[in-house]
Every structure is written in structure tokens, then in C-alpha cells.
């Protein structure tokens, strides 16, 4: 009986060691995936090189706390009325690299503009992740609704560019707004990976990264007006992915092709017709319906 009992204890210990080893491997893989995300998806810059004041705009520094305690920083640029853009920027730089575009959008549309830096960008603390970016976006949305008194259904436009388009769609699925505008957005990390590494199976590539940003599976659940803009010379996110996004969206929806524009020069190349298209889309929405 003693030998049987001893053998049972040895078996239990062996199983526990195997489980511990498996958990260790899983933990290392998760950490490695997060590291790869940092190297391949997010390219933050911690230094602010300009403010809206440099282009003649009034603005307020906004300091927020995400629900997990991460401290965030952004700007609120007042416009002429109640229309407010909540802007989610792309994966590189920080809000200061958008100052010229903020000025142009504020001038062309007369809109209030709220733009935040995701965790790890600019003056925001922490490190970026898909889950973290959604928490940051929630903090900004809550601030506008609770602190600024913005009526999201009639006054708020969710605006996402590039990676920010994925964040904007996540917020659009969770919250009602006047409109959702996506520019230079992609369908999913899987689709981007497949186009970057067509010789590797997508499932293999996905095992290397934590983020999914599966926008294509969500956008059809947005039940208010959607506008998708994309440069037909986009060298980073293929033009076809913009078409796929708008095809997956529910009506009412609009696609605007920015002829000759790449990934980062849409508003410059698009010029006045670009801003006029934005203006007509937003003002054409019947907020009473």
C-alpha cells in the first residue's frame, strides 16, 4: 500500500509540474506576443512638438483617467457650435503631429474637436494594447458626455483614421452617435498581415501578435450613418480594404474616394472637395430620425 501511495503522489507531482510548465510557456508566449505588438503595430512618440496654439487655435489640456487607472492626456479645441468630433488617431506619433489637420478640420467644419493620445503616446502613461486603446476611447467618450454635456446621438461624430478607425468602430458598436467617419482604415490585423506576408498562412501570423482589431466583423452592427474615406494611392492600407469596410457597413453609408491620396496626405491632396464631402455628409444627417 505504501508503494501505491508513493506512486500516486509522484504522479500528482508530475502532473502539477507539467501544468506549471505549460502555464509558464503560455505566459512567455503572451508576453512575447505583447512585445511583438509593440514592435509591429504601435509606434508612439512621447514628445509633443506643437500645440493648437501654434496654429492660432484656442484649446484646453484634458487629463483623463481610464477605468484601469491609466492617466491620459488630450486636447479639446472649441468650435463654433455643438457639433463635436471625437478623433482617434493612427498608430504613430502623437496628437501634436495632427495640429495642422486639427486646424483645417476645425476651420472647415466649425466643429469642436476632442483628440486624445492613447496610453504610451505623448503625455499619456502606460503601454498600448488593443484592450487598452478601447479603455482610453471610453474615457474620452465619457468625458465628452458627462463633463461637456455633449448629446452623443445628435452632436457627436466618431472620427477614426488608420488604426484609429478600428477604435472608432469599437466605440460605435458600444455607443450611439450622430455619425461614424473612418479614414484610411483597415479591415483586420489578419488581413493586413496577409497582405504584408502573403507567403505565410494568416493563422500562423496571428499566433505572433495579440491584437486583432477585427473591424470588418463589427462595422455591420453600427446602426447610424457611416462614411468611409480612402486614398486610392494608399501605400500602407490597400484601397481595397476601405471598399471592403464600406461594403460590410449597414445603410445609410457613403464611400468617398480621395483621388491621388496616399495614407498620410488625405486632407492635403483631397483639398476643399474633401472637406466639402465631410460637411455635406454630416449636415445631411436627419438627427430626428
- CATH topology grouping of the largest domain: Rossmann fold
Largest sheet: 8 strands, mixed
State the end-to-end distance. 79 Å
Question: Unreliable segments (pLDDT under 50, ≥5 consecutive)?
Answer: 19-39
Strand content: 15-25%
Number of domains: 2
Radius of gyration: 22 Å
Number of strands: 10
Highest CATH level, the class of the largest domain: Alpha Beta
Q: Tell me the name of the CATH homologous superfamily of the largest domain.
A: Alpha/Beta hydrolase fold, catalytic domain
Count of helical regions: 9
Shape: globular
Structural class comes to alpha/beta
Would you list the SSEs in sequence order as H and E? HEEEEEHEHHEHEHHEHEH
- CATH architecture grouping of the largest domain: 3-Layer(aba) Sandwich
Helix content: 40-55%
Spatial order of strands in the largest sheet: 2-3-6-4-7-8-9-10
* Average residue pLDDT: 87
Amino acid at each position: 500500500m505504501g508503494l501505491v501511495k508513493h506512486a500516486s503522489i509522484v504522479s500528482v507531482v508530475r502532473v502539477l509540474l507539467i501544468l506549471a510548465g505549460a502555464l509558464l510557456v503560455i505566459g512567455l508566449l503572451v508576453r512575447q506576443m505583447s512585445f511583438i505588438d509593440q514592435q509591429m503595430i504601435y509606434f508612439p512618440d512621447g514628445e509633443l512638438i506643437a500645440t493648437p496654439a501654434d496654429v492660432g487655435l484656442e484649446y484646453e489640456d484634458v487629463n483623463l483617467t481610464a477605468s484601469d487607472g491609466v492617466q491620459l492626456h488630450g486636447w479639446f479645441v472649441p468650435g463654433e457650435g455643438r457639433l463635436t468630433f471625437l478623433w482617434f488617431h493612427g498608430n504613430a506619433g502623437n496628437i501634436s503631429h495632427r495640429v495642422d489637420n486639427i486646424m483645417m478640420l476645425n476651420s472647415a467644419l466649425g466643429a469642436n474637436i476632442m483628440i486624445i493620445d492613447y496610453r504610451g503616446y505623448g503625455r499619456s502613461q502606460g503601454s498600448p494594447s488593443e484592450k487598452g486603446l478601447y479603455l482610453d476611447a471610453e474615457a474620452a467618450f465619457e468625458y465628452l458626455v458627462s463633463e461637456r454635456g455633449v448629446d452623443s446621438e445628435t452632436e457627436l461624430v466618431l472620427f477614426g483614421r488608420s488604426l484609429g478607425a478600428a477604435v472608432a468602430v469599437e466605440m460605435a458598436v458600444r455607443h450611439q452617435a450622430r455619425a461614424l467617419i473612418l479614414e484610411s482604415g483597415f479591415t483586420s490585423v489578419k488581413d493586413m498581415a496577409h497582405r504584408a506576408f502573403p507567403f505565410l498562412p494568416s493563422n500562423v501570423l496571428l499566433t505572433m501578435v495579440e491584437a486583432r482589431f477585427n473591424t470588418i466583423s463589427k462595422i455591420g452592427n453600427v446602426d447610424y450613418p457611416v462614411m468611409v474615406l480612402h486614398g486610392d494611392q494608399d501605400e500602407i492600407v490597400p484601397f481595397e480594404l476601405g471598399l471592403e469596410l464600406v461594403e460590410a457597413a449597414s445603410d445609410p453609408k457613403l464611400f468617398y474616394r480621395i483621388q491621388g491620396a496616399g495614407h498620410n496626405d488625405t486632407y492635403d491632396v483631397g483639398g476643399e472637395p474633401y472637406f466639402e464631402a465631410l460637411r455635406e455628409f454630416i449636415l445631411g444627417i436627419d438627427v430626428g430620425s
